[in-house]
Amino acid sequence: MIFITSKTSDGNMSIFCGDPTTALNNQKKFSKKLGIDYKNIIELKQIHGNRIIKIDQPTVKINRADGLITNRPKLYLMIKAADCHQIGFYDPKNKAIGLIHAGFKGLKKGIIKKVIEKMAKFFKSDPKDLIVKLGPSIGPCCYRMDIWKKAEKQLTDCGVLEKNIGNPRICTYESEDYFSHRRAEDKKENDFRFMTILGL
Ligand SMILES: [Zn+2]
Predict the structure, then answer these.
(1) Could you give the domains of the chain?
(2) 141 CA distance to ligand 1 middle (Å)
(3) Among candidates 116, 92, 110, 88, which has minimal Cα distance to 100?
(4) What's the gap in Å between 147 CA and the centre of ligand 1?
């Protein structure tokens, strides 16, 4: 399984922020670095909602949603972010994965509960087996909402075991390694996105 996040030095990864051709080239370069076939990466148009899509094959269609699930190996789920959570779910028993984009709005709309329910429905995933990894996101140090704690609480409320939750607690606002939407606004920087990829 791979769960990896691009860095500022890899460039902007969102075709919806800045120049789309550059973003696409950055995505291609990053996947090449990982040894991943670019065509197997599944991208979404993220809308701060709670819609989750099950993916069974590579597709060029860009759905409007904030989460992806699959049990197919070598399909790579991708979420773009700059402060929001990217949360990856891995069910080692049933060999299934899920990846969501969850900022304050997504958390409020219950996207964590929804992805866990969908993985249970389609892959028979039991929350207590799930290994959950969070990517870099804005910390309580720099944002009035503590989305770290909020996400962790929602995960444990859904039955995920505390010992199975990995949050690196890297604040995107403070770390120059990652893009931050709020830092971009405050410091008049380019409002770009990094990406997190999860695949079996
Ligand atoms: Zn911070």
Answers:
(1) 2-199 (3.60.140.10)
(2) 4
(3) 88
(4) 12
Q: What's the rounded Cα separation, in Å, for the pair 197 and 44?
A: 12
Q: How far is the CA of 175 from the centre of ligand 1 (A)?
A: 8
Model-wide pTM > 0.90: yes
Distance 172 CA to ligand 1 centre (A): 7
For residue 47, report the distance from its CA to the centre of ligand 1, in Å.
Answer: 24
Burial 118-148 (b: 16+ CB within 10 A, else e): bbbebbebebebbbbbbbbbbbeeebeeebb
**pLDDT-derived band at 187, boundaries 50, 70, 90:** very high
Residue listed under structure tokens 């709005």? 105
* Torsion angles phi and psi, residue 196, rounded to 5: -115, 135
Distance 123 CA to ligand 1 centre (A): 36
Q: What is the pLDDT of residues 83-124, one digit of tens each?
A: 999 999 999 999 999 999 999 999 999 999 999 999 999 999
Distance (angstroms) between ligand 1 centre and the Cα of 42 equals 30
